[in-house]
Specification:
single chain, Arc Repressor Mutant, subunit A, 8 helices
């Protein structure tokens, strides 16, 4: 899989613009658990995932994390080049959830192409709008959905992402995704276990009754 086939607007760029991107393009292989972008002052560049998975999250003043979205194969991250978008006033951190291969387009190169190409600017605006929609959806979940429903929905989503009902994940990691305390997650998971929805072991959660979890998560 090459960059040209993964970049959605490649065919809409001029030959000169393509040459500039390829001339500055950086290929990276990043190990699982690496923070590759940490603040608006860290203008990493645009990230395009070749294979693997990234997690974008924000930190509270107390250091608590909450996942705002995840990126999979062929997904692009703009918040890692937030220096191009002065209206962004919050810091987003990005880490690898698995070993990940990605491409980095330096921010100054892409900014120049956006200034030249209305198609590139429109594509960027559409992508940014989609990401903000995900953030707004998250806000609705946090504000209006109880924690037991959020935990159930997360477990089902994680099982779908990993392709297995036995999740190798800690209570702390779940809490980081959901923006809550580990003790809250532990309490919820013990309740789920008592209700026969999950089976708990050290470092893992097994989905025992998906129908009950789905009923709870979709309630």
């Amino acid at each position: 899989m090459d960059f040209q086939s993964c970049f959605p607007i490649w065919d809409k760029l001029t030959a000169a613009q393509r040459d500039r991107i390829l001339g500055g393009l950086i290929s990276r292989h990043v190990r699982k658990g690496t923070v590759i972008h940490s603040s608006s002052a860290d203008c990493t560049g645009l990230l395009l995932v070749q294979s693997g998975r990234l997690r974008a999250y924000i930190l509270s003043e107390e250091g608590r994390e909450i996942t705002i979205y995840r990126l999979f194969d062929r997904d692009m991250c703009l918040f890692s080049a937030s220096c191009m978008m002065r209206s962004i006033q919050f810091d987003v951190s990005i880490e690898t959830e698995t070993d990940t291969d990605l491409w980095v387009i330096p921010a100054e190169i892409y900014r120049g192409i956006m200034e030249e190409s209305a198609l590139a600017a429109n594509y960027t605006n559409e992508l940014m709008a989609a990401r903000f929609s995900e953030v707004m959806w998250l806000m609705e979940q946090v504000m209006w959905k109880s924690m037991d429903k959020r935990v159930a929905a997360f477990l089902l989503e994680e099982a779908s992402v990993e392709g297995t009902g036995r999740l190798r994940i800690t209570h702390e990691a779940i809490a980081n995704h959901l923006g809550t305390h580990r003790e809250v997650v532990t309490r919820m998971l013990r309740y789920f276990q008592n209700e026969g929805m999950v089976k708990l072991a050290r470092g893992s959660v097994e989905l025992a009754d998906r129908e009950k979890l789905e009923a709870l998560g979709n309630a």
